[in-house]
Give the backbone structure.
Amino acid sequence: MEVAAVQFVGSRNLFLRAVLLAALSAVLGTSALAQSTASLSGTVSDATGAVVVNAKVVATKQGTGVESATQTDTAGAYLFPSLPIGIYRVQATAPGFQSAIISNLKLEVATAVVQNIQLRIGQAAETVEITADTALVDTTTTSMSQVINDKTVQEIPLNGRHFTDLSLLTPGTVTPPANGFLSAPLRGQGSFGINTAGQREDTTNWLVNGINLNDNVQNQITFQPPIDTLAEYKIDNSSFPAEYGRNSGAIVNLATRSGTSEYHGELFEFFRNNDLDARNFFNPVLTSTGAPNPQAAFKRNDFGASFGGPIKKNKVFFFLAYEGLRQHQSLTVTSNRVPSQNERAGVTSPAIQKIIAIIPAANLVGSGTPTDPATFNAFTGGALANVSLNQGSADLDVELSSKDRIHGYYVVQKDLRQEPTAGGAINTNLPGFGDTRDGFRHLATLSEDHFFGPSLTNTVRLGFNRIHLTFTPNALLDPAAFGITMPAGAPAATGLPFINIGGALGFAGPTGEPQGRGDTTAVLNDTLSWLRGRHTFAFGGEIRRAYNNNIALNIGSFTFNQTGSGATLQTAMQNFLNDSASAFTVQLGSGNDKILQPSYDVFAQDSFRWKPNFTVNVGLRYAWNSSPSEAAGRFTQFDPTTGTLVPASQPYHTNNKNFQPRVGFAWDPFKNGKTSVRASYAILTQDPTTNVVVGLSGNPPFAIPISISSGAIAVENPGSSLGATSLGPAAINQNFNDMYSQDWNLTVERQLTSSVGLSMAYVGMKATHLQLNQNINQPLVTNGIFGSTRPFPTLPATSPVLPSQCTAPHPACSLGNINQVNSNGNSNYNALWVTLDKHFSHGLQFLSSYTFSKSLDYNSLSTGETYILQNAYNPRGDYGPSEFDVRHRFVLSGFFQLPFKGNRLVDGWEVGTVFQAQTGNPLNPTVAINPGVSLTVRPDVIGPIQVTGDPARWFGTSTQFAAAFATPCVGTTCHPGSLSRDAITGPGFVNTDFSVIKNTKLTEKLNVQFRGEMFDIFNHPNFGNPGLTFTPTSTTFGKITSTRFPTGDFGSARQIQFALKLLF
């Protein structure tokens, strides 16, 4: 399906605002100071400590030979605010002094390196050269950051080769929780979000060469650029300086690889299949009856090439890369119950007869052995879940002159992914359904550094990221072919409505499809850096314009539930066979929209060297985030003050109070660069996503979400029941506020050896105005009891927006659940972070970290939130541990080059590992009550809760958990359960990945590398969460049926991957 191009939507005022701010940013100079580069500064002095004025300082990048020059000011200070990352040779000269050279000085991405230089009296022709010490202690900045350098990126075992998983190596970042949305890995493509430092998964700002990689709809990454094109990875977890904004969570800086003065390249392929993998804990060789139990097929080929070098010596350099992925996978889908042959023969409804014809016959008994279908009517089969992905990138560096440098980068990805279990309220569990997801993604960055003089430099960046996605049902079945007459306005011939037969099976659909979106975020930012005595100033601004073009159709769903009791009891399957649906939903019309959301930021920052060993950092950032607008005025929403549907040209007020002060200090108490004490405080604002308003275009009159739950609905003509229509319109609080967090920390760092540094930090965070979805039409709670009376029972005839289905001859439309987007959530986080960092020396490099933390909130997701408050009128009743809360976490990553020397057989061996151990995430048991009401109700606690650690009985035996929990109902009268939210801890995990690498030099410039990588080398089962739906007689409550990897991927078991690289 083709998604129309996004159109510019705006007014003359918006245009003038953009022009004025662009002019302002050019004068002042955003958030880009050394974001994908690094800064180098210091003081030049003589042997007595007196500063040397007008000394010439030249920084030469050793890989390219490109020189950058400046000179010291009246305070003897020099500054290179934006140098490409790499290894440098720094030379200082002045009349009457010997030349001083600092060699092998490493500049890492988004870091501020201080290198003081001492000159000795003598002739300029005389040279003193020293090797730069490894910087292990930060004595100048105040943010909490960690750099993952190129050696780690390329050498450690990384399952899936996804760069987002590098975050898991750093303190404060936790493995994705089982119910994560953006952090839950996509098949073959990895996680698109992270939880770090107590922040939600949609609060991270991902920057590639200083340009956002974030998708403005959900604030996830648009895609994962090829990891072989990344030079370095840096994450700032807390209290970052004013030059950074847009998001309240971590800032992740990715610097891409560039060409050097010599031609280099590589060819590679990584290979995995199910024959190399151990069996999953829940997939034994034999079934309980002794029958063979085959593994599901899996084959993964990840291959590519890169090549880079000079176009013009010391002037122009390029780097090209390609990566492809072909992943072939079969999933096992199982239906608990399909119609028997006798049941099929007894169906009289023509529509149900045609639907049954696409349901396969039973092939399993309860034990799982293929046998007579009449014995037990279950079905199991295989469904394809393949992934195909192609990426290409180009990087260009141009040294125009000694005063101008240009850097450009472009990457594109085309991907195709099958999701055969995509369904509706439950997953599809028959083969042949689900959907196919087609993606086309781009990122482009262009930057120019201009040096006005020794103390004044400007960096301007321009870029965009774009994502184009379509979700298409695999089975494009025409309802008319099954004798189903859909209501007028329903999507035509785009698929059969999803069919959910309670407790038995789900198929057709998926609900909410076809859908697609084309989203573009354009960015312009500028930073002016000024060295003035002991002050280093930065002034900047940024313009972001997000365009979202969405196609949203909904082919609907039929739900068949159990009805009646005793002699009138009808199972869900019987109601299906009798053509008697309990509920029908569909969207008439479309929820298509074209959204524009501009944002404007400015900042000022000062790094002040109060004393040679004491630096004060202060800054202020201001963000103006506009309320989104829609091109055709399609936004309508429910207004609770009048109880009506109203047009919403401005869905919520524009936030204009986003002032964000930053302050901190860095102290070198012993004045030797080996110890530092650092502290900081910052207010950080979150730019709202357009996802908070996307649902408004799915409201009447352009789209009418229909929900019929009158029972006994005939599949042939569900529209005949429209007299009982119930609307559930989307809404957002008109006083919705931008979320902000207050971050603070205190850090002590100490250099232990020439290559080992230790850091201990207290990190705190309090978040305010978190997005919280509330059902504002929940039945009222009276005396602690859930009632049946809603605050807004019907849509009045006086409503400014009134669908025709709600006027005569139809009865007035009843109003069902109205989930309103609010900003009244809060959270807090307190933690101890301990890091031991061993820089590369003697063939060894490692990074280890321990985190002891506690995170509390009302709810833990903004996008994809399925959890609804137990009682919408008492949000504080859901205050408890965050869903991503992890009390203890330890990580060790590194590699060791074995010291064997000799011939090609013994030389070039290397081993690497990633070890992760953490306690479990919180669990939130629920009970299934009040069908049709948007609630998440927990059970009552009536006795001691038993947590056994047994995957078959996490909460003990049925007798034990029935003595601990009770359904919070007496008859049909129910109340909020007494169990606190997330009060129980789930399974933790321990995982070890290991790699063996053999480099064999064929010639001086030609190397063959063989890699063997083992993920979960000890085949230790790390369990997923147990079943959490409680009934006193449940056979699934507390039962674990899955395993997981630290990356969040399901199916943990030892996996072996082989790779071959040719490097030249």
